[in-house]
Fold this protein.
Amino acid sequence: MKSNDELKCVKCGKWAKPNTIRLEGFKVRGWKCQKCGETYLHPGDANRVLAFNKLKNEVIKSKLSYSGNSLIVRIPKNIVNALGLKKGESIKLALEGPNKITVTIS
Ligand SMILES: [Zn+2]
């Protein structure tokens, strides 16, 4: 009997084992067939990559707000979901010019 975390390969009928798969720079959960090498993506993770691709060339407006004495940047929910961001996650800010700050999730 196979464990629940294995997936039947549609291509060859053998069992695909859980694996981390690289997709357009993302590490996504999925399965890889041990026999034929076919890969299957986790649906939730694949949707996150699709959401990212939909947003990646858009300019998304947001506003600065105060939290105590600090200004905070509001990141819209669609970006939060596409990148899988969580409250408390560390970021790095880099000043690139008088009107440009880049935010890197670290
Ligand atoms: Zn296979």
Observations:
- The radius of gyration is 19 Å.
- The chain has two domains: 7-55, 64-105.
